Amino acid sequence: MRDVLGDLLAVWRAGGTVGVGTVVRTYSSAPRLPGASMVVGPDGTVSGSVSGGCVEGAVYELATDVTATGVPVLQRYGVSDDDAFAVGLTCGGTIDIFVEPLSQNTFPELEALAEDIVHHRPAAVATVIAHQDPAWVGRRLVVRGDEVTGALGSSRADAAVTDDARGLLAAGRSEVLTYGPDGQRRGLGMEVFVASYAPRPRMLVFGAIDFAAAVAQQGSFLHYRVTVCDARPVFATSARFPTADEVVVDWPHRYLAAQADAGAVDARTVICVLTHDPKFDVPLLEVALRLPEVAYIGAMGSRRTHEDRLVRLREAGLTETELERFSSPIGLDLGGRTPEETAVSIAAEIIARRWGGGGRPLAEVPGRIHHHQHQHSQLSDSLTRY
Q1: What secondary structure letter does DSSP report for 327?
Q2: Structure pTM?
């Protein structure tokens, strides 16, 4: 919903109703992750995507119907045995999409949720997408810190889902949870989709050089919250880095240590060290490589620079295990030379680290195209539609 929030809010504030289709579950090579949404406005306009084009037409029709009837629907789309190019995913995947009417009446908390997202405050939305009692479907809870708004249908269900939603929010994951019809931990009868709106992961770019501007642009494109940091005020200016969320003038190692102490660096944070100057990058890497958990640390420089840096870091007391945590020279071997091409190679390595990709041409890699962080349950032999 994050990507379509502006269009959704415009209609919501005007008192209108939109049909919203949200990917809640995927199997195999589905092109979009859970949480991807498509909005169909009252005038027929569309924003967002749930499949990259495969089933958008069918979801459009369903969203139009749901807006008219007010009855939400959970629909499964997969490859048809009779015609793989019928309404389904030509990529071979299967997705479950929950389509619902959204308005001030059905989602009064939407504007407050939007404020949370804009200001990087974590919040989770838990929506009943399937229940043996149709009256429960579409009910939701909004969970943020110790505050919970909304109701599902019973205090038992509210308590169980709230606890689990907090856990998913802390992990930054969105997924479907299954309960008994009254929120029992064991049993079937209710499915709840928890959409986690954790703050965007951070990209910390150190070194206010021309390559940093290109890396910041790539980071913004990949939905990171980008900070560029350099100790030289003449170079570290917002005008030079218009796509960065913030530009900080400080010694890199001091800034990173302060951010870590403040709890602003986590397991999703990526760190790009582009200074390739020992007086900056060695103290910075001392801090970075001793952080308990980050997603990626990469450092720019030639192989000779890298070897010199390793010597200095070993002299500073870093262990071989700590030194293995960073990638240097930074980026994948794409043959790029310009700042923009180099930034693409850095972004490609970050993506590969996140999903476990090898960086080889897909034509040379057997098996599935998309990598998954978490193993999904096997698809049932039946493609029964809800």
Answers
A1: B
A2: 0.68
